[in-house]
């Protein structure tokens, strides 16, 4: 291939230099801006982690309170966005609604195209982080035929989201604190994961200097697929299909003979237990204490046990990933399965934007434009259609 490197799937190509997220896949290590994910999940909040990812350091309490106000300032969406959402079919997939609605936001903020201006970038980042949960909750209310609940800026980021999802007009719904905490931890764990498929798309679209709403929509479309952020939905459907621990061995055999993939297992970078899955597994216990045990947990535990001892999975270093247990928690909280990829997109918005902002100030970055190895024919003679 001459001087070119042939690397399908980019298994060995660094597309950028970054100081945001560190992964050691062999050891199962994940750090945001140098802080181990375990420490952040235990001690931090999602808004604080968002600040960290975007600014490179933890905020002081004054900085955090300004940052929260900045986000709260933008949580409401234009009424015409609401009207546009009302035009979707009642059974539209929430991810489809999210992708097109956030793309539509770019038409409400045409100044977002001015991506070279750092102050303007900051404003669009705050807007996106603030509005994505509102739109996400609206997709759910739409599918239920319930009136949309507007954001309540007195609540934390995660609590406000649950409030917009589940409050009924005229009642005093109060999200359970244990569930709010679990959701906040899940948001922290999903906030960034260096150059994964959707983040690479965010950077690729951003590299052409498109506005961040359009780039977000592209990144979310990449996340939607079942091999990426759609895996949490696929896991729950798989566990439901298996239904009982007695059916697990047969299902695992079908995965081994190539008929199926064991969803929520395997990772391009982790060749060890995904540290996020370990934290989520612990978090599930706290949630089930409030909601009652999700019966599908037994199926998941049995799948993990059999797979971790089986030569097929051991040889290929296939371990549970972030998507394996997260859906069990979402389901226990009362979220519909089709909303699970949206639950990934809400916090990943922060990672996409942190990576986009980093790229916009990186002098090395140019428009992303990979090369190819051409295998087709050349210099053919054109045959008129009547002679073909
Ligand atoms: N079940 C059964 N076999 C698998 C699985 C699986 N989940 N994952 C990989 N393999 C096998 C694969 O068939 C291949 O075997 P062989 O060498 O015999 O051909 C080998 O393991 C290597 O797989 P690969 O497809 O080359 O690995 P990859 O790095 O290209 O793919 C992956 C990574 C995550 C797409 C893949 O493991 C997968 O499809 N997992 C299931 C979907 C999933 O859980 N995705 C969520 C990923 S984590 C969160 C996120 O990024 O969104």
UniProtKB/TrEMBL annotation:
Reaction equations catalysed: oxaloacetate + acetyl-CoA + H2O = citrate + CoA + H(+)
GO cellular component terms, semicolon-separated: cytoplasm
An MF annotation (GO) of this entry: citrate synthase activity
Pathway: Carbohydrate metabolism; tricarboxylic acid cycle; isocitrate from oxaloacetate: step 1/2
One of the Pfam families matching this protein, by short name: Citrate_synt
Entry annotated with the keyword Transferase: yes
Keywords: Acyltransferase, Transferase, Tricarboxylic acid cycle
Gene3D superfamilies: 2.20.28.60, Citrate Synthase, domain 1 (1.10.580.10), Cytochrome P450-Terp, domain 2 (1.10.230.10)
Active site positions, chain numbering: 267, 323
GO biological process: monocarboxylic acid metabolic process; tricarboxylic acid cycle
Family: Belongs to the citrate synthase family.
PANTHER family attached to this UniProt entry: CITRATE SYNTHASE
Protein name as catalogued: Citrate synthase
UniProt organism field: Thalassoglobus neptunius
């Amino acid at each position: 291939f001459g001087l070119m490197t042939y690397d399908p799937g980019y298994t060995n190509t660094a597309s950028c230099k970054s100081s945001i997220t560190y992964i050691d896949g062999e050891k199962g290590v994940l750090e945001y801006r140098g802080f181990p994910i375990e420490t952040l999940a235990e001690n931090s909040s999602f808004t604080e982690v968002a600040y960290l990812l975007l600014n490179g350091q933890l905020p002081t309490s004054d900085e955090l309170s300004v940052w929260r106000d900045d986000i709260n300032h933008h949580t409401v969406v234009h009424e015409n966005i609401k009207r546009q959402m009302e035009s979707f079919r009642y059974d539209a997939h929430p991810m489809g609604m999210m992708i097109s609605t956030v793309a539509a936001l770019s038409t409400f903020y045409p100044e977002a195209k001015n991506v070279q201006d750092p102050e303007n970038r900051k404003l669009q980042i705050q807007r996106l982080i603030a509005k994505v949960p509102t739109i996400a909750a609206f997709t759910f209310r739409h599918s239920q035929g319930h009136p949309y609940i507007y954001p309540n800026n007195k609540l934390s980021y995660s609590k406000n989201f649950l409030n917009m999802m589940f409050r009924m007009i005229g009642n005093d719904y109060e999200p359970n604190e244990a569930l709010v905490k679990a959701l906040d931890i899940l948001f922290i764990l999903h906030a960034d994961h260096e150059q994964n498929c959707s983040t690479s798309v965010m950077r690729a679209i951003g590299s052409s200097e498109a506005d961040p709403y359009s780039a977000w929509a592209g990144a979310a479309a990449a996340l939607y697929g079942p091999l990426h952020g759609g895996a949490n939905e696929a896991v729950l459907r798989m566990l439901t299909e298996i239904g009982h621990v007695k059916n697990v061995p047969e299902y695992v055999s079908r995965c081994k003979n190539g008929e199926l993939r064991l969803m929520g297992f395997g990772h391009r970078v982790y060749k060890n237990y995904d540290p996020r899955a370990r934290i989520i597994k612990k978090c599930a216990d706290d949630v089930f204490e409030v909601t009652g045990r999700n019966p599908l947990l037994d199926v998941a535990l049995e799948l993990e046990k059999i797979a971790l001892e089986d030569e097929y999975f051991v040889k290929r270093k296939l371990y549970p990933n972030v998507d394996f247990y997260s859906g069990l928690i979402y389901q226990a909280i009362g979220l519909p399965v089709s909303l699970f990829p949206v639950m990934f997109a809400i916090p990943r918005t922060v990672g996409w934007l942190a990576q986009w902002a980093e790229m916009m100030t990186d002098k090395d970055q140019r428009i992303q434009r990979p090369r190819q190895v051409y295998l087709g024919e050349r210099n053919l003679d054109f045959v008129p259609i009547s002679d073909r």
